[in-house]
Design brief:
The chain is an alpha+beta fold. It has helices spanning 2-21, 50-69, 106-111, 116-138, and strands spanning 25-30, 37-43, 82-86, 92-96, 99-104. The strands form two sheets. A three-stranded antiparallel sheet has the order 3-4-5. Strands 1-2 form a two-stranded antiparallel sheet. Strand 1 (25-30) and strand 2 form a beta hairpin. The longest helix has 23 residues, at 116-138. It is globular, with a radius of gyration of 20 Å. It starts with a helix and ends with a helix.
């Protein structure tokens, strides 16, 4: 009986250790200048996905730059401008003022134990908070 218990403990330790080793790494993606985290970009391997994160920041920056160039009117950019769109192929993406920001992928959804649509709702809520913070910090007084 002790031998079986011991083997069971060894097997459980092996399972838990491989689960811990297989965990993904993550980099917080924030709304520039606000300190509001939009989501955690998760990845496996040793190379952080800086190119993908830079694309997300470039997409956000294009929205914010357009707002600044238009005169920084606080009513011209708000949380209401954050949209979730699903295309015919089932891709779920976030947009701000019709500018693509990021696609919610199956990898992130499964890590969050959610569907892509459910995770998009979470990311959209964070993005809305970030947009509101950006406008509040940068509006002309």
């Amino acid at each position: 009986m002790r031998k079986i218990n011991f083997l069971l403990v060894v097997v459980l330790l092996m399972v838990f250790s491989t689960t811990v080793l297989a965990q993904s790494k993550s980099i917080p993606v924030d709304i520039p200048g606000t300190g509001v985290h939009f989501f955690m970009y998760r990845y496996e391997g040793t190379t952080p996905p800086y190119d993908q994160i830079s694309k997300i920041w470039a997409n956000l920056s294009s929205v914010f730059s357009a707002w600044v160039e238009a005169g920084q009117d606080p009513s011209a950019l708000s949380a209401k401008d954050v949209q979730i769109k699903t295309d015919a192929s089932g891709a779920v993406s976030l947009y701000v003022k019709d500018t693509f920001i990021v696609e919610v992928d199956e990898y992130h959804a499964s890590l969050n134990k959610a569907t892509k649509a459910q995770l998009a709702e979470k990311w959209a809520a964070n993005l809305k908070r970030g947009v509101e913070a950006f406008v509040a910090i940068n509006e002309l007084l």
